[in-house]
């Protein structure tokens, strides 16, 4: 079904490309009136020939293709056939427009098709090969994300990922390791030339409790090396290769999870985007480095998150040297069933010591797109999905428990210094730009302009029963009474919303009018901000 939809979509889009390219070139060449006078009759047969040869040649069908190169050959064959037919008709005097228009239109359409259609092929192929681990949707649909209620305040976006503890990890394995302990072999065979890394591992993992015979050490990005490892066969797995070069990160981490015993340790390292930026600045100076890093960021950080471009990115790079934030790395680890023991930057790379705590998540297509939707309770208890721009790093929703464990709380139980917020996200939140997609909900009639804050089911159930019933009588709003009353504790938030709803039920318009201007004053002059 997906291939049929794609086939018809490409057909429709190709018709639009041909028509608009033809009209644009004709306008540049001759002017609008001459297009209507000379080329209106020729446009239909021109487009028909192009589309017909494309259909017969299978340009819109990806089912039988083996590679992107095969599709490029098919596209070239279809377009060459169409060109030959059109030029033949021009030679016979059947068409009456210039060769300039013909060749310019064909060149423009061919370039657009080559980029767009081949990108669609790679995107579909990537999505098919990674159906359970990646998404190319603009709007992220993730149960873990939809249930999440974000904090209200933003303090500082440029925060380091905190550490859980400083103690050494003692695994739940037998103490009967005797001479089979991994401590000495790890130093002699693998890390004798990297004393800093060895000391880091030895400080936070009791290596005397891990057997060398149940330890697997690699320096490779190849999935094949671990593919056939028996499940629950290893106590320790160490990969000294950067995880940035792993082709399918989640698939790799899930396989590691399967091969480790419960409580087993996974040690790896990767280059964070902060370390990547520092490397560019050091290598190319801050002046040239800021430009080159910007280009690198677009290619290796932005492209993998957008439809079409994601397919091109993985086709060209094979997934190697990917730009990953430290938060995304950690989020992927937690998604795949690991928990952080400790982390440390060594020689420009972040090293992670993780332990297996659970099976990997079964949530398909984790967060990655530029838009998110949040599952909320609306009027009459109806479930609505609030739209917003993404302001957190990918996979941040899987770090909810980690944030609770490591971050201090402000008044009212809100997170303090949430490291999951990106710098761009902090700016979007400060300027309220991340809220703009909610106008879609507003025009659908799901929310009002002023109203109580839309709540997840979890936070809704924390409210008193009487307020829950009152909330069912009004729509959530874009501007909540929180910004008018500025409550600091949960109890004050409850009282604020109760007063607002009681007033709104009696005087809807005047209540919203009063709360709106009071909230606007607090936002503009008292710097009330949403997080």
Structure description:
About 50% of the residues lie in helices and about 10% in strands. By secondary structure, the protein is α/β, with parallel strands linked by helices. The protein has a 5-stranded mixed β-sheet with strand order 2-3-4-6-5, with helices on both faces. A 3-stranded mixed β-sheet has the order 1-7-8. The chain folds into 3 domains: about 1-130, no CATH class; about 145-270 and about 325-355, Rossmann fold (3-Layer(aba) Sandwich); about 445-530, no CATH class. Strand 5 and strand 6 (about 350-355) form a beta hairpin. It is built from 20 helices and 10 strands. The chain has helices at about 1-30, 30-55, 70-90, 100-130, 145, 185-190, 195-205, 225, 250-260, 275-300, 310-315, 325-335, 400-405, 425-430, 440-445, 455-460, 465-470, 480-485, 490-505, 510-525; strands at about 140, 215-220, 235-240, 260-270, 340-345, 350-355, 370-375, 385-390, 450, 475-480.
